[in-house]
Amino acid sequence: MPRAVREQQMLDAAVQIFGQRGYMAASMDEIAELAGVSKPLVYLYLNSKEDLFTACIRREATALTRAVRAGVRTDLPADRQLWDGLRAFFQHTAEHPDAWSVLHLQARTHGEPFAAEAAAMRTEIVSFVTRLVAVAAREAHRDPDLPEHEVAGLAEALVGAAESLAAWANTTPGVTARQAASTLMNFAWSGLGALMRGRRWTPPPEGVV
Amino acid sequence: MPRAVREQQMLDAAVQIFGQRGYMAASMDEIAELAGVSKPLVYLYLNSKEDLFTACIRREATALTRAVRAGVRTDLPADRQLWDGLRAFFQHTAEHPDAWSVLHLQARTHGEPFAAEAAAMRTEIVSFVTRLVAVAAREAHRDPDLPEHEVAGLAEALVGAAESLAAWANTTPGVTARQAASTLMNFAWSGLGALMRGRRWTPPPEGVV
């Protein structure tokens, strides 16, 4: 069997064990056994538990961002792009719960080098969403335009909401990927949509109780 | 000086150092120096770096949830409650950036016991927001009611959005707490508000490209 194929099998097993047991409790013995190889071979190919975990984070971060990008056709209207992107995101995280646990939970919980890997993926997704919100604002031809700061803030809010909702959907029985996507779309788009039409929620004046 | 006062001074210093340097790089020497006490006294009072960090997380989690609760008057309309809660949240995280870094970043990055402390605070905030969304839905007298699953999902989305936005606001020059609260309120309330009025965003039929 070619090395590349064997390596993918080891990563498959590692994502499953890291995702289900957590980084600390995961044992290299169990990963090797699940991959159907010897433990020395895992070390030979992937070097150490740290390097194996880093390889898992990188592979799964790439797979997730690729799935979201692939789900979106940039020639469609903005609300359709957002819906397709959300659906692709929640479908991927629902179909790969161990990978999502590695990215969202494990990578952020076990030290800065791993957290930095996950943060890089997040930055990429935030800029993808920022572009999408900016396009939506342009499509709406609003005058004055949404300030750049607000577009960036909305993208951050949307990504944070999606992360939180994916973690909740994966641990709450009976919540489908489509339901999670639809909840967030209704939350986000009706809000964003109102903003695009210049309909703001207006805070009460300062100092009023 | 009474022990309780000294302890608070040590915690003040520790939150600042942990928040700015990160948990790993923070030194007990620096914390003791900033608190104006000897290092052995810090160990005598707080036992270990781990226990000191845990005490910081607990204190700051309590302070944040208390600030949010104190900002909200439950006899006001739901949108006003949400706005007041968001404003209290972003004001607190802006005024205590080191505490927010400890709670949002450091506590989640350095092992499961610390992450569990931060998760407990998050659970409390999510249930507070869930109640708020449920009250808003009841006020709107919609028939049929928003399903319970959707209310829980909306609360998760809102909390995730707020966390993400607070981290962004604290690291982006020129973004005030009021702007961050207003961005999220517009994003969230117009969306939630539309939902309450029964105005849903409707997905395109399945299978259509």
UniProtKB/TrEMBL annotation, chains A, B:
Molecular-function annotations in GO: DNA-binding transcription factor activity; transcription cis-regulatory region binding
Ranges of the DNA-binding region feature: 27-46
Keyword DNA-binding attached: yes
UniProt keyword annotations, A-Z: DNA-binding, Transcription, Transcription regulation
Keyword Transmembrane helix: no
Example GO biological process: negative regulation of DNA-templated transcription
Highest rank taxon of the organism: Bacteria
Residues in HTH tetR-type domain copies: 4-64
InterPro entries named among the record's database cross-references: DesT_TetR_C (IPR054129), Homeodomain-like_sf (IPR009057), HTH-type_TetR-like_transc_reg (IPR050109), HTH_TetR (IPR001647), Tet_transcr_reg_TetR-rel_C_sf (IPR036271)
PANTHER family registered for this protein in UniProt: HTH-TYPE TRANSCRIPTIONAL REGULATOR RUTR, POSSIBLE TRANSCRIPTIONAL REGULATORY PROTEIN (PROBABLY TETR-FAMILY)
Protein name per UniProt: TetR family transcriptional regulator
Species in which this protein is naturally found: Streptomyces alanosinicus
